[in-house]
Amino acid sequence: MATAKYLANAGQHWRSLLNSPTWLRDATTVTSPWRLGFWFMVLNALIIGSLIYVDTEIIRELDNQTVIAELGLGRLLAGSIFLALTTFVTVFVPVRTAGVFYGPRLGRYFDQIILSGITPWRFLMGKVLGQQAFFATVVAVSLPYFILCLSFGGVFFWEVLLCTFILLVYVQVLVIVYLAFTTFLSEIIALPLVIGLFGAAGVFGLLHVSPNPIGGITPVSTIMGMLYEDTSSHLSYTFRGGFGQLGLVTSHVLLYGILSLSMIGLGSLAVALGPINALTTGLNTFGAVVLPGDKNRASWLKKRFDLRRQSEFSFLYENNSAAWRTRDFQRRWSLRELVFVLFIAAALIWTFWLFPPFGEPFYLLLQLMCVGAIFLNAKLFADSWMAERLYTKRLDAGTLNALHFCGNSVLIWLGFGWLPSVLNLDVEPNVSDSPAEFMEIQETNLSLVTQFVVMGLAFYAILRWIILRRVNVESSSLLAIFLMIVIAFIPIWLSAFANLNTALDEPDRFPWLAMGNPIEMIESANSMRRPVSNDDRIGLYWSASLYSFVALLFTALTWKSRQRLPRRRL
Amino acid sequence: MITATALNKAFDDVAAVQNVSLEVERGQTLGLIGPNGAGKTTLLRMLATLAKPDTGAITIAGYDAVHEPREIRRRLGFMPAEFGIPRDLNMREYMQYFACLAGLSRHTRDAAINQALELTDLRGRDDVMVSGLSTGNKQRLLLAKTLIHDPELLILDEPSSGLDPRARVDVREILQELAGLGKTIVISSHILKDLDSICSHVLIMEAGRVALAGEVDSLRRQMSSGDHHVKVRVFPNKAAQAATCLEPLTQLTDCVIEPEGWLRLTSKNASNNLILRTLLDEGIEVLGLAEESSDLETLFIQSTKGDVT
Fold it and tell me: Which residue from B minimizes the CA distance to A12?
């Protein structure tokens, strides 16, 4: 009985998705003749380009003759066609998905979409359905090339079928990740970010390392892996780590499956839950193009990438179910916490589990992730201004922000400074052989993380102050990063102007001048795996003082600006 | 159906709507009149849940517009003054797109589309591209789209704007038909004559404030203070004689001779029959008789000062 009810509900959901207007629109664009012609042209160019590459760079090289004989020319060509298809979908699936908000906005009917009461899920998921039709078109267009491969030594039928399925999964990953990005960022930013991210991962996928956790998010490493493994002369670089211990080193398909399903799952969750970092319902100014204070604001501060982004946020909030909206506080605050904790966990797993034996470079990666975690922490809590309502209680967002920031700073300190040392994680076997030296690393780690936390606090204060000036969150983040860079380099520039160019030429003499920027701080900390000297301490004191001052200054400015904020926004 | 209390909305330091309250019963048609910049569109957008009032409360069909906007949106059809269309669609595809948005199932969609197109006299033009439609037909199509999910409440912002006289009459007739179907309608327009024949109630706004509000007939009576105006036309050379013979009528308070033999009579309760009989008894031939009543234009002119925000 319960199963029947569940199935009936699932059927209803499915029918409701098929009834999505975005799917209806997409279906018409897929069959549009000029679009079909354009895609056909680009796809052909890519496939022919890849075949020419195989012909000129691989087949004609005498060294590769053994490889070609082992694989068969047909398989090699099929592999190159799949790589061309991967490149094609990496660019065109996000491009085709883009415009989910911008299209209606430019057509001036976004208000009508909002007023229809359609749920964001049904509206956005129509785009996922639309990509299936697009993928079917792509496969149909490339079929003649696969038939061509048959006459060049043939292909493995199951291999082609598996690669097609992998590409189909990849299309879902691309579209879901893009939609998830779109609910958090503007489409202008999300588009190059998604294409760049997956493009870079695809390049990593060409490296024959196993496992390949970066390249593994695209089909490239799987396609290449299948070919590499059937050649006798291939070199296999296998990372020692969790996957190796579990005996899953060579299973590219399994790694790809795990990573893809995780991304589809997390992406769908993000789309379903909406913009957790966005405005609360009470803050929406829906359709209002004039923001408080615009009259007195400099013209460049009035410029916004997305004048009506707030109406999109409002749509994503307001058109959800009543149950979804009543748990607004729990959803936004607990999920931003979850995002942060997941980031730290992923950083630790990435560094210690997947890349343990590489020592210095990956230790550097961990430190950079630590900086990333702190900036993420600052960013996640900087844009909430409303007094929050938890059941019947009203909570001040400023206090909640402060509590979260302090709590997360301890988490960063534990995650990046203390936990690796306590768990005895094998970071740098060459350096930390002796217990005394290991303790020195631990001390340096803790000192470094503390420094970064102070830096994060300064970033948080700057970002919060800029957001209060009502510049949108995305441009505020860019502006805050720019200000942080300026602050980091000001001492060096000043010293250069004052003819103290020794700061640049002889950084050892004035280490404190350079200590304002995170890279220099990491560099200094990495060279401090010895008893800490007084010069080093001066550098650390300088950095901590500089950023404490910046944090205090901007907190004071924020406090002053907040006094002037119209009452209704608080 | 709609209750709005003490609404205020400001854009920066410009107060677009100030302390506006209104009430619309189910089945009523409220006309929103005001000069440009009076705050009509802002008020309509707040009622349509597209803008949030800075202060004040809106309840529509028992739901709070700020906290339960989705429940209101399902019951509402909003026709904006600005016409936005998805690209490359013909009329049928356009209607299908909005039917999907409204959540109409595949089975009910076609019937709903046909009904809305029928009501707006657009049936049989399914393949015409929306971008190639005339302004009048675009307005009809927008109205058809607004009606597709059979909303209880219609909020129409300048539906006759930019239309030629023939198209205006058509839209007016459609709206009268909708009012006859029992829909609650809130409509704003500059063309007061259109509203005159549609609206049961009127709200005149100026500089963001309510200048006058109430039932149209009752407002007319209030504005005219119970006076009855009649214009009678006689041969111009008989106008003076006609004025003299009407003077003894006790109900008559004023009689003014106007060009071309017209006489403008103001009375408390003199019947037209009595006026006609008096003139005919004197042997004065009556060429025409017209009753004058306070129309919306008169109400508008009398209640506003020409201020804008």
Answer: B105
